Request: fold
Amino acid sequence: MSPLSLFRQKDFNLKNEFLSGLTVALALIPEAVAFSIIAGVPPLSGLYAAFTIGLIASIAGGRPGMISGATGAIAVVVAPLVALHGFEYLLAAVVLMGILQLFAGVLRLGKFIRLVPRPVMFGFVNGLAIVIFMAQFEQFKVKSGQDLAWMTGAPLYTMLGLVSLTMLIIWQVPKLSKAIPASLVGIFVVSAIVIGLDLDTTTVGDLASISGSLPSFHFPTVPMTLETLWIILPYSIVMAGVGLIESLLTLSLIDEITETRGRGNKECVGQGLANLVTGFFGGMGGCAMIGQSLINIDSGGRNRISGIVAALTLLIFILFGAPIVEKLPMAALVGVMFIVAIGTFEWASLKVFGKIPLSDSLVIVVVTLITVVFHNLALAVLAGVIFSALVFAWENSKMIRARKRVDEEGAKHYEIYGPLFFGSTTAFNEKFSPAEDPSVVYVDFAESRIVDHSAIDALNSLTDRYDKHGKKLHLKHLSSDCRKLLANSNAIIDVNIMEDPKYKIVSDQLS
Reply:
């Protein structure tokens, strides 16, 4: 990709891209530090991941305007690995994670995001909004000896007041002017008040120091053995899956908001390349970040430039701006994230309860609860997809039906409607009466399809039933893919496929 190609996208404003990138960079810092603490790694590992992943995914990914970096979903997965085997094994797992994601992109597996139903998307978004909202409550705690305790008294009132002021500014600024992102205005105004009045409140520096040097190349110092591979492989597979699921679902959400279309397979490649590189530069790994992506979109970021600016600005903060950034009040950043959580929640989903099938409502609730309780997006989405698939199979199993008629020559015709698959085979077989039918029977599949092995086995069973009564069963109007499926299964089924010039089906005997 040439540098000029970054500017070829239509409908973007260069000023908005830079200001959006700056806003996102400020919002990335506490998240990256918090996730590194969860993972049990140095804060700079989270910051380096935010920089390298954010930069590479913005350039090579498939969704302009989407922000990537260190995420909580990855941090939760890697925490046990770090605790058991140490930081170097994490870096090796991140490298392998990137390789797996690259393979997923090359194999074009990104298209399978289409299998995620709408209710699962609702549940994913709602669950993530709740997780983002609840995560901010950690900033209302202060150290009390070796433990953390909830704020009380003046510190709590100060924090609540500053958070509320930030949210009020973000809410009102767009009504006055959209020249500067409202989130950026909120952060600067509240920061100016805190610094100017020397208010005693929690700042970014209270989390950890963000000062550091340029990330340097570091090959993970782990034994290059099969034992090491078996240690990191399970973690890498889960990390790759979680990262791609969250990234592709975020991509779909941004597509919907911007009414444009990202490229899922390219995003898989971009995420893989980003994690492969960050593993060699001390980063903890990551994926797309829905909160920061929405901040970027709401602030006017539509191009790859905003993501690149966010990553480079974050690096500048690490190298030169730490003394200033560490003075920023956490209350301002919490207020921004509260607004993001409120905007992320799909409030329209609450209105559809009672208007959509009960199964879809259950999917929304289940995916939301799994996301909130387990903080495992991959598990939540997988559970939602499986539940939806089972409901779909059950509903389609009841759609199989047969219209019966006898022609002038005395032959009986069964005209089948609906798909024949594992869920409908029992109902299909119940529609036939071999003992009562004439010697010649036709089964017409013009309005049906043979889908799987269970369907083939059902036809074989039906053929045997008619054969025991000395009667012939013929299949008509099979589509080409159905005929191929039967031909590939000729070892287990013996039926006649009737010639039909209209459907260009050639008579054949499968044996």
In short: The longest helix spans residues 226-258. The chain has two domains: 10-203+225-367, 401-509.
